[in-house]
Amino acid sequence: MNLRDLRYLVALADLRHFGRAADRCAVSQPTLSAQLKKLEDYLGVALIERQPRNVSLTPIGEQIVSRARRVLQDSDDIIDIARSSRDPLAGPLRIAMIPTLGPYLLPILTPKIRKRVPRLQLMLYEYQTAALVEQLKSGEIDLGILALGVDVGGLEQRELAHEAFTVALPANHPLAKKTTFKMEDLDDATLLLLEDGHCLRAHALEACSRIRVHEAGDFRATSLETLRQMVAAGHGVTLLPELATRGPFAAAKNPVIRPFSKPSPYRVIGAVWRKSSTRVPAIDAVCQVVSEVLGE
Length: 296
Description:
The protein is about 40% helix and about 20% strand. The chain is built from nine helices and eleven strands. By secondary structure, it is an alpha/beta fold. The strands form three sheets. Strands 3, 4, 5, 6, 9, 10 and 11 form a seven-stranded mixed beta sheet that branches. A two-stranded antiparallel ribbon has the order 1-2. It has three domains: about 5-85, Orthogonal Bundle (Arc Repressor Mutant, subunit A); about 95-160 and about 270-295, Periplasmic binding protein-like II (D-Maltodextrin-Binding Protein, domain 2); about 160-265, 3-Layer(aba) Sandwich (D-Maltodextrin-Binding Protein, domain 2). The longest helix is centred in the N-terminal third of the chain and has 28 residues, at about 60-85. The N and C termini lie far apart (about 50 Å).
């Protein structure tokens, strides 16, 4: 038994498909299948239920995969400890962000990080909140940047910035001429929201909890850009995080973007990582740059 075979097994457990697991491990499917069969022979138990068009783990296979994940994480930590002792701000750092933050933050953030910590190699991912937390706990990523306020199950967390919400309205909306908004101005408005699974949905509903808004019952967006286009087409109003209104979006005339008067609703952007992480110096460096960018 070796670490390579355990990686094959974990990949198969994650993807439930021999071909995709082989692709992840950069080997041929026959090689992966043969090595896993050798692992089963060595252990003397069946780990995998092989059925036409269906791959699943046996009960003992599930138990072994759980232990294998910990073994692989410890193995990766050993490498990280050795690397960090030589240069704590060098080597790969796997960072994941939520979809309502990554597309707007990363284009600004990555060049600043490369300038500040040039030996750090960023590996970037995007997950919804629940998946991000699970990937972090399983050791698949090193750092998550998300909106705080969710249960992160014992992970370390650090507040980085408050990101204000703005109002997005169709250009022909009766309220579009207002320069700033109070939450009460949206009373009785039709509110467009993201689908379940996006934490921004919960934050928007919480921000509007003191007024009467009507959620569009026949529409749930999968992204902020879908929301933006639906608002521009006149189907309702929405709340957009401030970062999503910067850059190329700032010049758009439809939808109209307006700030809230203070105190404005906001979400708290923060960082989460494992308490056992060996990459804390690199995480601290990235968090500092994120705070600066969000504070600009």
